[in-house]
Amino acid sequence: MFQPIIESCTRETVAFEALARWDSPELGAVSPAHFIPIAERIGMINELTAPLLTQALQRALSWPSPIRLSFNLSAHDCATWESVKRIVEIIENSGFDASRLDLEITETAVMQDIDQVQQAIVRFRQLGCGISLDDFGTGYTSLSQLHALPLTKLKIDRSFVRCVHDNPASYKIVKSLVALSLDMSLGCVIEGVETQDELNALTSLGCTMVQGYFYSPPITFAETLVWIEAPDDERTFG
């Protein structure tokens, strides 16, 4: 599945984030919030990452430039040089332009082994990939640690977005995080936007790239092709 990331001022689609889904014959649709932590705990997450990344890159080849692909990595994906090398090889062999790929790493994952993750990020950046710090604001990254990472984007966690238009505390937090991203010359994506009021408040803070059910839930690959072809104001998956 893929969720669009939208430039709110123009309604242009700038990227799709690949999202893992598992349809179990016995359990039905299983949320990644359930099966990803289990895969990490039993040491199988790398076995999931490789085929998911390979498939996402193959499908993204069908999208016109400059639409980007955003893909999530776990702490385990960056934990050893063997796993990093495997990801690099998948990207290099895919035929997809690495400069159109954003690899997302959560703030919590970074803090598990910041030195190793930093080296992994450097290697991915050498390929030309963008690096997004996901769920920003929920972890414990210090400003000095943040500055040391060669990031290209911050993704502000959805927990700060809910009712941001009438929650002064959330509004101030998002305002500060957006200002920080601008000061560091980083792109800023706001996650979890669900209402027009939230979008209006975020736009007033200078937020431009947004993601959430206000525009669209995750959609299938086939639907991404329809989405791309549709006029910006006539899309119907939201």
From TrEMBL:
Q: What is this protein called?
A: GGDEF domain/EAL domain-containing protein
Enumerate the Pfam families for this protein.
EAL
Q: Which organism is it from?
A: Pseudomonas syringae pv. persicae
Name the domain of life this protein comes from.
Bacteria
Which GO molecular function annotations are given, in alphabetical order?
cyclic-guanylate-specific phosphodiesterase activity
Where is each EAL domain found? 1-232
Please name the InterPro entries in this protein's record: Cyclic-di-GMP_PDE-like, EAL_dom, EAL_sf, Pentaxin_CS
